[in-house]
From TrEMBL:
Keywords: Ligase, Membrane, Phenylpropanoid metabolism, Transmembrane, Transmembrane helix. Residues 5-231 form the AMP-dependent synthetase/ligase domain. The keyword Transmembrane applies. GO terms for biological process: phenylpropanoid metabolic process. Pathway: Phytoalexin biosynthesis; 3,4',5-trihydroxystilbene biosynthesis; 3,4',5-trihydroxystilbene from trans-4-coumarate: step 1/2. One of its GO terms (molecular function) is CoA-ligase activity. The chain crosses the membrane at residues 20-42, 164-186, 198-217. This is 4CL5. InterPro entries: AMP-binding_CS, AMP-dep_synth/lig_dom. GO terms for cellular component: peroxisome. The keyword rRNA-binding does not apply.
Amino acid sequence: SPDYGIRKGDVVLLLSPNSIFFPIVCHSVMSLGAIITTTNPLNTNREINKQISDSKPVLAFTVPELLPKLADSNLPIVLIGSGTGKGKIVSTLEEMMKKEPNRNRVKERVTQDDTATLLYSSGTTGASKGVVSSHRNLIAMVETVLGRFQLEDQQTFLCTVPMFHIYGLVAFATGLIASGATVVVLPKFEIQEMLSAIGSYKVTYLPLVPPILVALVNNADQIRKKYDLRSL
């Protein structure tokens, strides 16, 4: 953070599909007392620019293929993965992770009442709005996840929901990591890829949203013939 001047209360934008790096970026930002704001990779440039204008981030993390969506923002950008493109690229996540922490940086006290995330509503019934969650909110939601599953043995979860939503962020990028469970991450939802992953990784838990469950029930006979779901 000394290299980029990120301090408590600053907002950092994360524009990325699901990946194992999503929780790393989120927890790193929140540990500084800074605020993470995520956005849907399918959003248009206009929608992303509107969120940037509203949330006023000072730094952005994104993957090379989504760089064009930040090209007009003039934000300093840290790339997740290798690649080039148009934009004010200041570093890569890999380079940042190789650096030793600066022991002289000012460590600001982060309390449970401080803002942790600023996630935006989908805007289906009106203009998209920023929804604030505190560290206390996240702790409570993590405790709910831990209490719900009561994981005693090693379990494997499959993440099919987007981590930029509160469900994916709290359950997969935060709560299940805290439980010590294994999380298999799919970049995006594709039903065949999801079903194949269940057999390949011996997935034991599959948290879903209702439309996916309906699709599974409607195609149950064909799915049973083609995929091994016995681990669930």
